[in-house]
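If you are new to this repository, start here. Below is one unmodified record pulled from the training split, so you can see the exact layout before writing a loader.
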Amino acid sequence: MRRRADPGDDDAAPLRVDRWWCWGPTTLPPGETGPTSSPVTVLQMVDGTRPDPADRGSPALLVSACLLGRLCNHRGGASPRPAVEALADGFRLVPVCPEVDGGLPVPRPAAEITADGNVRTVDGDDVTAQYRAGAEVAVSLARTNDVVGAVLKARSPSCGSAEVYDGTFTRELVRIPSVHDPARGLNEEPAAELVAAQMRAFGWQPRLDLVAPGRPNVIAVIEGDRPGPTLMFEGHTDVVTEGDPSVWSIPPFEGRIDLGPDGLETSGVLHGRGSADMKAGVAAAIAAVEAVRDVAPDLPGRIRLGIVADEEGMMLGIKSFIANGWADEVTGAIVCEPEENEICLFQKGAMRLHVRVYGVMSHGAMPYAGVSPLRGVADMVVALRDYEKREQERIGEHQYLGWPWITPTIIQAPARGEAQHNVVPDEAYMALDIRTAPGQDHDTIEAEINRIARSLEAATPRLRFEVECFESRPWTATNPNDPLVAAVEAVYPEVLGTEPRYGGVPGATDGTFLWALKDIPIVTIGPGDRTIPHQVNEFVRLEDVVRSARLYAATAILYLRAS
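And here is the target side for that same chain:
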């Protein structure tokens, strides 16, 4: 999503349609029904007032022709709205379709405003000139008819005001294989450059901080007009491997958008690796911040965006972000991970351990001559299962996070060298993935696993264990009374049309370190099914992306104004 480019030069067009502020989608004209995601946007008059249907002087309204049932959209269809047609009782309606008026045919290829401010079709043809010509026609109609306001099709590249849906950015972001894979020459740099370019197109001044070769963080700060809190939006550019592309129904980096049942992209689905986790969240955050700048430029405080590298690995990006002082002023952070737009105040912790078991090599026919490290691994797996059960009984099932888990994820023997059927190896390796919940202490868990290892050593002479915890990410629990939580809860029903829904993050995120190292309240919320990341055929529903962007923008305004 991105803001609509001005239709022409400011000096040549003193009457600019995009000076009119949007009514929120929940303040539709009388007679308009439906969800808050209605694609109709009603604009205010230039002087800041709303058109008054009680005024029988027949003032003129500029109206997108497709909303009046004219077959003029790019598919040759219309988007009729009875509420818009009903405005004819109090207003003289002036239909306009800038795309057709600019010389484009019906039907025509879909077009989008790209990061450079030009308009291109999905086929790659530049139609900027036609869009500018159509905008000039619209301005001329507004002048000659003395229009007092406008009812325009929201998120249209030609009629959208303040914010339009633009699949280009999100789709192009998904098309970048930002997997960290040095063997294939892949990293986050191209995705970070695209994010930075989008920010520059909005007039921001992002910076790229290199965390590791080819792995930059993108950081942008939007300053308010007076002191106040600092709200952070956090996301990441890296994605996990796509695996075998042949098992995907749609190529993982094609970035295909399937239209929704109404024939619109906004109700459709974007496919591809990283679409949900979490390039959609990144796009929604950027769109939201630009919308805030557009409609509420007088806010106190500041908004800070951290679009970081390596979330899927060792989280080097957020660690660097914090170490370099970018989190020092942050008073609250929204982590834009795919959580089905549920308000998540809790995140599971994560521990990752290496367990190496050393035995004595022997012939497979004479195992008594040595000591099998695999028997040690088996005994450790059983002991860990017992410990997991004890911890589950001790702390119970968390309302939003479920049970804590201790999961062996890799067992390998021999740990090095070539395996042979008739050889008992001298070393085995096991990886542990431990997910913790509030009430558990990571140091205590590590100590207990070491105690288990020592007891197994005592039971089996010549068997030796080494336990190494190489990553510890504590669980998080944000105070439900924090002002950021209050802001999200307050705007949720208005923006999403339902009472707030709550959930928990089953895995650790970058927000873990913001909370643990800097004591920053975090709310994790974003578009996408939480079960789809890291699977084949990853996707995100674009209407969820739009909802997230609206929620982020409304939250930011309320949070900063409440200071």
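Two things worth knowing about this chain: Residues 101 and 134 are 5 Å apart (CA to CA). The mean pLDDT is 86.
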